[in-house]
Design a protein that fits this description.
Blueprint lengths: L7 E2 H8 L2 E3 L5 E2 L1 E2 L9 E4 L6 H6 L4 E4 L11 E3 L3 H20 L11 E2 L4 E2 L4 E2 L4 E2 L4 E2 L4 E2 L4 E2 L4 E2 L4 E2 L4 E2 L4 E2 L4 E2 L4 E2 L6 E4 L2 E4 L6 E3 L4 E2 L4 E2 L7 E3 L4 E2 L4 E2 L4 E2 L4 E2 L4 E2 L4 E2 L4 E2 L4 E2 L4 E2 L3 E3 L4 E2 L7 E3 L8 H12 L1 H27 L1
Parallel strand pairs: 4-5, 5-6, 6-7, 8-11, 9-12, 10-13, 11-14, 12-15, 13-16, 14-17, 15-18, 16-19, 17-20, 18-23, 19-24, 20-25, 23-26, 24-27, 25-28, 26-29, 27-30, 28-31, 29-32, 30-33, 31-34, 32-35, 33-36, 34-37, 36-38
Antiparallel strand pairs: 1-3, 2-7, 21-22
């Protein structure tokens, strides 16, 4: 990352984020860095014992750590119970500080932006070059709309949100507060709905919208389709990675996270605090309860009614061994029938032996 031209005092960080500072509060900082890449002026963190060697060799001016490591660093330290979480909050604070320093360089509304006369854009919002804010759309306070993004008719984005360049938020879709949507994502494209007629397909118009909650983050090139009649719903605190497909009428519960390349079919409801691994596929019209973890590449074909860990992918192996296992996998049904027949024979033999003993 680029170093700041105007350093920040470590004391200002502790004043904003808390923690116990041991050392000079006036220590200047101009960069966040890993322990290995840190230089004078950097602030870093140690998240576990496996990084003690890196801590001993680091050139960081300040390190965030738990109390038991405090004597392992000669310079100032910030003591906290969870250094990784502290560093996460520091990245947010740092970015806002840098954006504040750069705010005077940006125009609030770019000359090439198009804002419909009926749209409402808050006085503190910024609209990038070539962006379009369509009729009756609403943009909240301190929200940024990136270059060439589109906010549709009767669509809305709440306050303190960030819409990256080249995002489309289609008609009648609503995005909450403190939400981030990255480039290439489309919110509110038509769901995949068709009725068969004489070996052809008749389109079902998708008349619902999309409702996205607060503190949501949606990665690049992710699609959330609009509902057929009711809205597709993304709950508060949901985190979606890049390249995810959320089909029409899906509900994703609060604080659920999905890794890249997940596909959720229509009308499936996913509970709160679930974790969905990369490349998971879910069939439509399923019910997934709260606190479910689905391992990567699992194909979920039925509802999950009990919290826990679920997996359904064959692990990789050396190619020849995998081929042998795959061949046996195709014979499982036949092998099952043979085992049942053998069990029946053993049972008959046991019964006959018992009868002869009694005789």
């Amino acid at each position: 990352m680029k170093a700041l031209d105007q350093p920040i005092r470590v004391g200002d960080i502790v004043d904003a984020l808390g923690g116990e500072l041991r050392g000079d509060p006036d220590t200047p900082l101009n960069q966040l860095a890993s322990l290995e890449q840190a230089q004078s002026g950097s602030i870093s963190f140690i998240a576990g014992a496996q990084y003690k060697a890196a801590l001993a060799a680091t050139k960081a001016s300040v390190v965030i750590m738990v109390a038991e490591y405090a004597n392992l660093h000669d310079g100032p330290v910030i003591i906290t119970v969870d250094p990784y979480l502290y560093f996460a909050r520091l990245t947010q604070w740092w970015k806002k500080h840098v954006q504040g320093l750069q705010a005077h360089l940006a125009e609030r509304i770019a000359p090439s932006a198009t804002i419909h006369p009926t749209a409402h854009v808050a006085d503190t919002a910024t609209i990038g070059a070539g962006a379009v804010i369509d009729a009756y759309a609403r943009i909240g306070e301190h929200t940024q709309i990136g270059a060439q993004s589109y906010i549709g008719i009767h669509a809305s984005v709440g306050h303190d949100s960030y819409i990256a360049p080249l995002v489309s938020i289609m008609n009648e879709c609503r995005v909450g507060n403190f939400t981030r949507i990255h480039s290439g994502s489309v919110i509110g494209a038509d769901g995949f709905g068709y009725a068969p007629e004489n070996k052809r397909w008749v389109k079902i118009e998708q008349l619902g919208g999309v409702l996205i909650g607060d503190h949501v983050e949606i990665g690049a090139n992710t699609c959330v389709d609009r509902g057929a009649l009711e809205d597709t719903v993304i709950g508060d605190g949901v985190k979606l990675d890049n390249l995810i497909q959320i089909a029409h009428n899906v509900h994703v519960g609060d604080d659920t996270a999905m890794a890249s390349c997940v596909g959720i079919s229509g009308s499936t409801h996913i509970g709160k605090r679930c974790i969905i691994g990369g490349a998971v596929g879910m069939a439509g019209h399923l019910e997934i309860v709260d606190d479910v973890v689905v391992m990567a590449a699992t194909n979920v074909t039925r509802s999950i009614s009990k919290p826990g860990f679920y997996s359904g992918i064959v692990p990789f192996d050396e190619a020849n061994a995998w081929r042998k296992n795959a061949a046996m996998f195709r014979q499982l049904s036949h092998m099952r029938d043979r085992i049942r027949a053998l069990e029946k024979q053993v049972s008959n033999l046991t019964t006959n032996s018992t009868d002869k003993t009694h005789d």
